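Sample pair:
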Amino acid sequence: MEEEQKRVVQVNIRLTAAENKKVEAYAQSAGLSPANWIRQKVFTGRFPPVKNSPIEAAVYRELHKIGVNLNQAVKQVNSFRAREIPQQILDDLLTIQQEIIKRLLL
């Protein structure tokens, strides 16, 4: 690394516990360290882009599976191959939906 590219000046700031928690959450969601997140925010004037967390990706995949299952069940009902969606399937889908909503609201 060239001499002028080395970071040699240190700037210290004081944050409240709440501010620090917020910075850490923003940094984690962007996949950056808090220092790099602050640096990018300061010099670009914009928030660094948020990356999807593995949890969000897993929730999205689960929602997709639920949608596929529901579409298949509705197609069966509409094509008269089934008179109604079995109650167990509806109960399972409802349970999964409630779990996902609970996790999203945490």
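The helical segments are 17-30, 34-44, 54-78, 87-104.
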